[in-house]
């Protein structure tokens, strides 16, 4: 069993942009999922270091897959789209929608803590302020 400190430690913010790619299956997606599974797995395995995590999603308590979530490291939106467009699951038209959003890895087991030093260091963000001070731990 993994043990963690009671409070999350400060960790540096990731320097590369992360994109949350949310894909929602279209109707009758089971057949293309099965047909393109080998190509999809080959693509994600070949590019595994570009994903923070990725996987299918289901409705709560359900068994049927209804989409996929990818946290993709990329130098730009275009870079993330190029990576994703190499995945047969995207190119076969299985997904009804594909949405890209920038994502900030701020706290959790994966990053090993939290990216803010204290409340004052991020208070300006709650009002929509700039992000450049979060890694320095100082407020504006």
Automatic annotation (TrEMBL):
InterPro entries: Dimeric_a/b-barrel, Sec-metab_biosynth-assoc, YCII
Gene3D superfamilies: Dimeric alpha+beta barrel (3.30.70.1060)
Domain YCII-related: 19-103
Record PANTHER family: PROTEIN YCII (PTHR33606:SF3)
Family from the record: Belongs to the YciI family.
Name under which the protein is recorded: YciI family protein
Species this chain originates from: Hirschia litorea
